[in-house]
Amino acid sequence: LKLNKGDVIDIVLQNFAFGISGGRTISLTHPFHLHGHFFWVLGTGIGDWTPADEANYNLADPALVDTYTLLPWAWIAIRVKADNPGLWLLHCHIQHHAHEGMKIALLEDIEHLPPMPHDFPVCGPRKPQQWTLNFVNEQCNSCGGQ
Question: E-strand spans in the chain?
Answer without folding.
Answer: 2-3, 8-14, 19-21, 24-26, 30-34, 39-46, 63-65, 67-70, 74-81, 86-92, 103-108
